[in-house]
Design a protein that fits this description.
- By secondary structure, this protein is mainly alpha-helical.
- Helix content is 73%, strand content 0%.
């Protein structure tokens, strides 16, 4: 149990560190949160619990979520996306969609992608083919390699040329922030395009 407490402690605060990423931080002219100072304060609060106690686990969880909420309130787009994912997991779809829309309107790629996949995508409670496609297109234009892959997959049979262009875009986008799953998806779809052009599929 003590090991679990230590692992959870490190994992949660590694997430707090990520809030300091400079890309997609806060809107110009808005005050910044001193996240290092917040972290020290949170650590001091959490240290009143034993490492092997569930109380410490839940204290750390609350503090990490509170920090994400605070950063989102300050306009941190990464934090807005994280908070929207928390809301979505809790079933608060309206709150999640609102946060993702705000971040997507400021061209945060993951926000548009998550709107498409978790709010309007196939099997979602608010499934909407038009909205699904629109948000995927915006996410792709904003830099999401995964969104470009999803669009390429949709156009594979109907428009192989467009699908090839989208895969080329996805490949370029993925070089900037490499994701192995996206890389494998691109290769798989490229192979399918070759088979289509050869008349095998």
């Amino acid at each position: 149990m003590e090991l679990l407490g230590v692992v959870v402690y490190e994992v949660l605060f590694s997430h707090l560190d990520r809030l300091q990423e400079s890309a997609y931080s806060v809107q110009e002219g808005r005050p910044r949160v001193d996240l290092q100072e917040q972290r020290r304060e949170y650590e001091a609060k959490a240290d009143c619990y034993r490492d092997d106690s569930m109380e410490k686990f839940f204290a750390l969880k609350r503090l990490a979520e509170d920090n994400v909420v605070a950063a989102a309130d300050m306009g941190n787009l990464w934090a807005m996306d994280r908070l929207a994912r928390l809301e979505c997991r809790k079933g608060h779809l309206q709150e999640a969609a609102g946060l993702w829309e705000q971040a997507a309107q400021m061209h945060y790629p993951a926000a548009g992608l998550h709107l498409a996949l978790y709010i309007y995508g196939p099997g979602c409670e608010r499934e909407d083919v038009r909205q699904y496609r629109l948000w995927l297109e915006q996410a792709s234009q904003d830099g999401s390699a995964r969104a470009s892959c999803e669009l390429a997959k949709q156009n594979l049979s109907s428009d192989p040329f467009l699908s090839g262009m989208l895969l080329a875009r996805a490949e370029e986008q993925n070089q900037g922030k490499f994701n192995l799953h996206v890389y494998r998806t691109i290769r798989e779809l490229q192979q399918k395009l070759v088979l289509l052009s050869d008349g095998v599929m």
